[in-house]
From TrEMBL:
<feature type="transmembrane region" description="Helical">
    <location>
        <begin position="87"/>
        <end position="104"/>
    </location>
</feature>
<keyword id="KW-0812">Transmembrane</keyword>
<dbReference type="GO" id="GO:0000030">
    <property type="term" value="F:mannosyltransferase activity"/>
</dbReference>
<dbReference type="GO" id="GO:0010041">
    <property type="term" value="P:response to iron(III) ion"/>
</dbReference>
<keyword id="KW-0808">Transferase</keyword>
<keyword id="KW-1003">Cell membrane</keyword>
<keyword id="KW-0328">Glycosyltransferase</keyword>
<feature type="transmembrane region" description="Helical">
    <location>
        <begin position="267"/>
        <end position="289"/>
    </location>
</feature>
<feature type="transmembrane region" description="Helical">
    <location>
        <begin position="206"/>
        <end position="224"/>
    </location>
</feature>
<feature type="transmembrane region" description="Helical">
    <location>
        <begin position="328"/>
        <end position="348"/>
    </location>
</feature>
<feature type="transmembrane region" description="Helical">
    <location>
        <begin position="360"/>
        <end position="381"/>
    </location>
</feature>
<dbReference type="InterPro" id="IPR050297">
    <property type="entry name" value="LipidA_mod_glycosyltrf_83"/>
</dbReference>
<feature type="transmembrane region" description="Helical">
    <location>
        <begin position="301"/>
        <end position="322"/>
    </location>
</feature>
<feature type="transmembrane region" description="Helical">
    <location>
        <begin position="125"/>
        <end position="155"/>
    </location>
</feature>
<dbReference type="InterPro" id="IPR003342">
    <property type="entry name" value="ArnT-like_N"/>
</dbReference>
<dbReference type="GO" id="GO:0005886">
    <property type="term" value="C:plasma membrane"/>
</dbReference>
<dbReference type="Pfam" id="PF02366">
    <property type="entry name" value="PMT"/>
</dbReference>
Amino acid sequence: MSKRFNLWLLVLAAVLISRFIGMAFFPFADTTEPRYAEIARWMAETGDWITPWFEPGVPFWGKPPLSFWAQAAAIKVLGLSEFSLRLPSWLATIAMVWLVWRLARQIWDVQTAKWSSLVFATMALTYISAGAVMTDSFLALGTTLALVSFCLVMSGERGPWQWLFFIGVVIGLLSKGPLAVVLIGIPIVSWLLLFRQEVGSLRKLPWWRGSVLTILLAGPWYVLAELKTPGFLDYFIVGEHIRRFLDPGWAGDLYGSAHDQPKGMIWVFWFWASFPWGVVALMGLVVGWSQGRGLDVMRKAVSVSGPCFLLMSALAPMLFFTVAGNTLWTYVLPSLPFTAPLIGRWVAKLESGWLFRGRAVMVGLVPLLLTVFVGVAATGWETLKTEKKLVLFYQQTRKADDSPLLYLDDIPFSARFYSQGAAREVTEEGVIDMQQQGDYRHLYLAVPRDWSARQVAELTGSATRVLENRRYQLLAIEVLQGSQQSVSVASAVVRTCNMRFLLLWCLP
């Protein structure tokens, strides 16, 4: 093995292992990560592997369970922690890095394959999602495995790749649903329209047996989920896959709010997701176009079978989501494993100039920036929207006769996760009732941080602020016990009687 190959492998390993820092030390910040983490935690705790639960009594119909299965299994093996819940996404990313390397090597050469894998691993969205509790990594793994297998089979590969195509479809169906089939189908159909002579090559895939395998592996969960919680298929298939993308302000979302974006915003998201490589590649394309080489590059990209398939696969997610207003930047992730080889081929051919000299900087840019960000956040940076510190303070402070951790009106997902489901929502009337009942010595209540002392006093006259974070202030409310509570009630009665007497005396 050459020294250059060793150096590439060491750099790639350093990039991927550096993500461990964020996986282990960065707290879950609302809303996506702690929401999915709590669903997985609840699955591991209850042993219900069919229906993911949004909260006790409320099924989560928004996503199939593959990511939750992986995260719940990690909890069972490694225990409950941020690291264990994030590990499955990291492993999925490792698999995609290898698939990118394998595909680029098949189409071009080893040097291109090395740069393609580095480009993919150091794109902003790839690096972030590799250590995040999300479903998108599993969708991208499914679509990447299916499309890479298809490309390799069309190029003459046999054996397991013929079946891995259908395994990729299964992974997609169990991680995100029918959307995976669409994202796999768009580049295949587009490629066949441009290379009609390749239609006969479709016989290389075992379509009938593969389709039966897909149904046998993915179908039973859909049936069981509908039988267990009727209404799932209507919400998930019609609502999540049709209404969500056609209606920017879709009001049917049971678990959050619609992400109303301008149509076409997905292309802007691509630049964010592929940073820094996408921006640099666009600059290189503009320079090449100004020198009269841009048209030749585009013509070559669509005239050769392999690069054309890469281009179609890279464009498919953006083409599909262009007309959608309800989008997120994570929707770009299935594009990146195919964007990376196109950019990697260009980077590998650089021989001089500032881009050639700056390749090493671009490899380390995103990992360095995110590692610094994680390090600052781990020191207790108060701008994160997480309840970890508040929950830990409560757990270390409370006594046996104190109340559960209470959040006024709405409880954040991070509070649910870090309290392991013990935190509770409560209304102002509920707080007053709990004070009057006297079941606890202290009530620990989180109220909005911007509440004034007057608002706190109107709710209770015996509160002490004991902690504050970005969004909340934690109040310790002393509950009057026994004779003290009787005196307080008696005083309130006297004040009420005096007020009534005064009103009667003032009336004519």
